Amino acid sequence: MATNQALVEAIYAILRGSDAVALPAYNPLLGLQVVRAADALVITVSPGDPYFTVAGGMVAITSLVGYITVAPGGANTLSFELNPTVAAGANVVFCTPTDVGTTGVEGDVITMDGLPGSALVCAHRATNPSFLRPVICAPGVIGCVITAALGTVRWVLHYFPIDAGATVVAIP
Hints:
The protein is mainly beta.
């Protein structure tokens, strides 16, 4: 009920012309957008540095893209994992550890292709086929496992809720 009340209040504010309501960006192909501000990479082991929280039900992640704002400047592998909310659930690996530091430079993008166990792609231009193979994700925390404290990356995630009320929010 609280979610419905918040939705009604947001619609009312929009109709009133209020600037107090910030709605997430929406792309019909990729879904709702969640942006995690540029942040320095910090050495973190499994389940990773918490980047996004999935709550309220399952979501389909259609895109996870990183934009390198400060070059890593040395060997640095990244991977993503889901630490599920369910206490008995094991961490789920989204992609294998991939060295983005040796080849990544400022302005490069990092993408995930959506196939479990695949490597991340880091280049000046990278494809994003994960919208064709969305990652279905249960509630939990998506973390980034990092082997070296080198570089700064801004992350953008797109998703579609599968369950009513399911959301993804960035963890600052």
